[in-house]
Model the fold of this input.
Amino acid sequence: MVPADRLYHLPVGVGAVEAVALAHPASTAYLALFTHGRLRAGESVAVVGAGGNVGSAAVVMAVRAGARVIAVASGRDVSYVRSLGADHVVDYRSDDVAGQIRAVAPRGVDVYVDTSGRNDLDTAVDLLAGRGRIVVMAGLRTRPVLPVGPLYLMDRSVHGFAISHADTAQLADAARGINGLLLSGRLRPRATEVLPLSAAAEAHRRLGEGKVHGKLVLRVRG
Ligand SMILES: NC(=O)c1ccc[n+]([C@@H]2O[C@H](COP(=O)([O-])OP(=O)(O)OC[C@H]3O[C@@H](n4cnc5c(N)ncnc54)[C@H](OP(=O)(O)O)[C@@H]3O)[C@@H](O)[C@H]2O)c1
Done:
């Protein structure tokens, strides 16, 4: 049973598979940017892991919200992330990633969202503008160094969240934002492979091997 206050209307014309593939990562991106990162129009945001499920949704949402987006992504994802509207895209394997971000945001970024789980806070804090916000959500076992002086002397902050703790008002807010983008056709899952429920074990294995680029959706009925 799903509580009624956790059900949301899908816009007409949006397919179930598309919605299933997007709901979780896009809600996560929304919570990261707006609920926890408090991103506003005219601000700048660095999205780390921008080619991934959460990161790509974050790029689309931040662009739509009128923010300047600096994306850090895998080299193979650079043109995809650019096509989502990111203003600058940096290959995370290139030299001096922080220097490249600083070059395009010399006064610092207002929000820094790390979906990659790398959580290099030592670098991230220095990339923030005064009152800038870092949002962490991945990298369960990381134990990063936090440069405390540069953090508090500039009113900067670090916020972590897990979507499972989002309340119904926050989720409803995210659903509204996502539906608007679905309707306009701006938000689309990148690569969605549909498998029968009987392939659940194979799907888990592939996910565990880190070989899935996008989403696997299990279809319960033919
Ligand atoms: N806290 C929450 O509520 C919540 C909710 C949903 C998801 N999550 C977590 O969020 C994370 C992202 O999920 P996802 O579905 O978006 O995963 P994903 O599709 O695998 O995206 C992760 C992206 O990060 C990139 N990446 C890896 N190392 C990087 C680096 N050093 N710098 C920049 N980018 C790098 C990856 O590129 P490559 O392909 O080159 O590796 C990939 O594109 C997962 O850890 C997931 O568990 C948390």
Observations:
- The first helix runs from residue 16 to 36.
- The CA atoms of residues 49 and 115 lie 5 Å apart.
